[in-house]
Write a structure and sequence with these properties.
single chain, 205 residues, 3-stranded mixed β-sheet, 5 helices
Length: 205
């Protein structure tokens, strides 16, 4: 999942959340205001009847309520995933595994009582499924050297980086023409390497 897709998903998710909140609050407000303050008014009753019994009202109420609940559930889960620090190693590994990620940690401490103090990549970074997340219970980090990925396919680069406990973010298709960080850079294991691909060209003689 590249950065553009992650941003698009974030915008869509939050837009849908806001729309669902507006839909639900609209009908709640109509019912509450009408019944509490002006229930004896014939005009108010007529207005309430028209709003609540128009053909599309049940659809809006149901879809808005369901959508709101789904958005709330997602937000709770997303917040939990983004705050695995200060959870025990066992809890953090379970959360990340259920989210489709691979976790790695080097520790001699009891995983059921030792807390995670940091992770790489940091919380909030968009990752593809099966990406590697390095967990740490101490300040010492494990590092590796970024290989030269130029000219390789996405699958070749993904496999090579995974062997080094590194992740990948892909833009484009074809073969890799650039990468960030550059080859030879020292980075923490778990770091996301951004690569740009372009269709391979063949010289015509």
């Amino acid at each position: 999942m590249n950065r553009t897709y992650g941003l698009f998903f974030f915008i869509v998710k939050n837009t849908m959340f806001i729309l669902n909140v507006i839909i639900v609050l609209f009908y709640v407000a109509v019912i509450a205001i009408t019944t509490k303050y002006i229930i004896g008014n014939d005009l108010a009753r007529s207005f309430l009847d028209k709003v609540m019994y128009m053909p599309t009202a049940p659809v809006y109420i149901i879809s808005g309520s369901v959508g709101l609940l789904l958005c709330l559930a997602y937000c709770v889960y997303y917040r939990e995933f983004n705050n695995i620090r200060n959870k025990t190693i066992t809890e953090a590994e379970k959360i990340l595994k259920n989210a489709g990620f691979t976790t790695k940690i080097t520790t001699s401490n009891d995983k059921n009582s030792t807390q995670v103090i940091d992770q790489v990549p940091k919380p909030g970074v968009s990752l593809a499924k099966n990406s590697i997340i390095m967990l740490y219970d101490q300040s010492v980090r494990t590092t590796t050297t970024v290989p030269d990925l130029t000219g390789k396919s996405a699958s070749q680069a993904t496999s090579e980086l995974r062997n080094l406990n590194l992740n990948i973010s892909i833009t484009g298709s074809g073969v890799i023409i650039s990468q960030d960080p550059a080859k030879g850079s020292k980075v923490d294991e778990g770091t996301v390497i951004k690569v740009t691909l372009k269709p391979a060209t063949t010289d015509v003689h």
